[in-house]
User: Which sequence fits this backbone?
């Protein structure tokens, strides 16, 4: 956890408060797909990412990846399509070209 999810707060703590906040505020939205351990894991399956997004918004996303210096797939962009008015999500008629590995990491900032 210290390596993959470090707290950058000042003064720096042991991370427990930060991790608790992240799970309570963001992680609980993924409870149907990910338990706490899976949420904080270093990588996620492409299918679980797409499934979580589709479950949340109701439309199929396209997930684009890039690779880090070690060749690991990293989440780069998520595409969803809107209608001509730009107001409503719709199923995308086509997706851009791109490829992700079966396991995807969230890049560190």
Assistant:
């Amino acid at each position: 956890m210290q390596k993959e999810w470090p707290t950058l707060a000042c003064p720096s703590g042991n991370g427990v408060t930060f991790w608790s906040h992240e799970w309570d505020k963001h992680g609980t939205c993924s409870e149907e797909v990910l338990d706490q351990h899976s949420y904080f894991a270093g990588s996620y399956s492409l299918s679980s990412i797409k499934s979580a997004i589709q479950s949340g918004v109701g439309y199929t996303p396209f997930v684009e990846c890039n690779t880090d210096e070690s060749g690991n797939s990293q989440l780069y962009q998520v595409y969803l399509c809107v209608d001509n008015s730009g107001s409503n999500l719709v199923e995308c008629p086509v997706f851009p070209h791109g490829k992700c590995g079966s396991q995807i990491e969230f890049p560190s900032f």
Notes: The beta strands are 43-45, 62-67, 73-79, 81-82, 89-90, 103-105. The chain has two domains: 1-41, 43-109.
